[in-house]
Write a structure and sequence with these properties.
Order of helices and strands: HEEEEEEHEEEEEEEEEEEEEEEEEE
CATH superfamily: TolB, C-terminal domain
Strand content: 35-45%
Number of strands: 24
Number of helices: 2
CATH topology: Neuraminidase
Largest sheet: 4 strands, antiparallel
Strand order of the largest sheet: 1-24-23-22
Structural class: mainly beta
């Protein structure tokens, strides 16, 4: 009965939160891509866009595309392929770029990696690309790689890793609840891929020293708010997509807890059953799901009323979702849902404060969202 009530409330809330046309922005198509996955701005205003099958495009803001050579060879299957791309915080001086992708292993296994190289914009090409981090163990599952990359103000690199849907129905065997692997977790690393000092499980050594938080399912978005607080958005199982405030050592409970259930109908206890407070509950969750694919916080001036809000791109929801967050307690509320009519893969605030978005799939467009006058 509780699940039915939650579903009914979710349907009502989802409908009431839908923004009505005309939306407060104009969406202008800039260029088309083959399965775009991530976008990143360079200091000169151009963008880097990854395509899942293994191509990197250098794109001007008026849509001119140039392929960047030197992209890695990727295991392109299922949800696997080329993933995120981020420039180093000191890119203006060191020209360093970081790329995540899925790498083939032995016996039909695969796993996410992060590689570091130099971006030569004169060619353009990625040179000296070297893998500096791997999600381990490699598994023969083609889903839940996550592999988002984020840098903090101190130059630490955060990497998200999904649990690959491995042993999800046997919580005691699930990788996200064990520290002998880095699946189902968020890592905090130095810019060379080594564990950063001060991580919460550093005393255990080995792979545990990388881990910042655990008990995640498929964390496809990680972002800092204006105060430097880390957040993540992740796909839950059948119901219960989560927006989480992430602090060191947090365990978010999956698959012991979730506000959704397994796809075969097997019940997972909800977060509110954790009366001992052993696990961290989400600040917001969705049922029906939104299928989140990326997360950003808005800090610009083009949309002044949105400063401090989180924005989530949604796949099955075909939407961009604006979330208002209470600065005092971190509680979150869906403020608006902009239905875009296409599966939305990624979001990025541009240098001028406009919002840029990429659609998912073949023919996925780069969109520029500017204020409606």
């Amino acid at each position: 009965m509780k699940r039915l009530l939650i579903l009914a409330l979710g349907l009502v809330m989802g409908t009431s939160a839908l923004a009505q046309e005309p939306y407060p922005f104009v969406s202008t198509p800039i260029a088309e891509f083959n399965e775009p996955w991530a976008l990143e701005f360079l200091p000169d205003g151009r963008l880097l866009i990854t395509e899942k099958s293994g191509t990197i495009q250098l794109v001007t803001q008026d849509g001119k595309k140039t392929e960047v050579t030197g992209a890695p060879t990727v295991a392109y299957a299922g949800q696997g392929g080329l993933g995120d791309i981020k420039i180093h915080p000191d890119f203006a001086n060191n020209k360093t770029v970081y790329i995540s992708y899925v790498e083939a292993g032995d016996n039909d296994t695969s796993g996410a990696v992060v590689a570091k190289g130099t971006l030569n914009l004169d060619k353009p090409a990625v040179e000296g690309l070297t893998v500096i981090w791997r999600a381990l163990p490699k598994l023969n599952s083609g889903i839940h790689f996550s592999h988002r990359i984020l840098f903090d103000s101190e130059g630490h690199m955060f990497v998200s890793a999904g649990e690959r849907n491995f042993n999800s129905e046997e919580p005691d065997k699930a990788p996200g609840q064990k520290l002998d692997n880095n699946l189902g977790k968020i890592m905090r690393l130095n810019d060379d891929g080594t564990p950063a000092a001060g991580n919460p499980f550093a005393s255990q050594g080995g792979i545990a020293a990388e881990v910042w938080s655990m008990g995640h399912r498929n964390p496809l978005g990680i972002a800092f708010d204006a105060s430097g607080q880390l957040w993540n958005i992740e796909m839950a199982p059948r119901g219960g997509d989560e927006l989480n405030m992430v602090n060191p050592g947090n365990n978010f409970g999956y698959p012991y807890l979730s506000n959704g259930n397994h796809y075969n109908g097997k019940i997972i206890p909800d977060h509110d059953t954790d009366t001992e407070g052993k696990y961290v509950a989400p600040k917001m969750w969705w049922n029906p799901v939104i299928s989140p694919s990326s997360l950003m916080f808005y800090t610009g001036d083009q949309f002044p009323d949105w400063k401090g809000n989180a924005f989530i791109s949604g796949l099955s929801s075909q939407s961009i979702i604006r979330v208002a967050i209470n600065a005092d307690n971190g509680n979150a509320t869906e403020a608006q849902r902009f239905v875009m009519g296409k599966r939305m893969r990624g979001l990025k605030q541009g240098p001028d404060g406009n919002i840029w978005a990429i659609e998912d799939g073949a023919g996925g467009r780069l969109l520029k969202l500017t204020p409606r006058k």
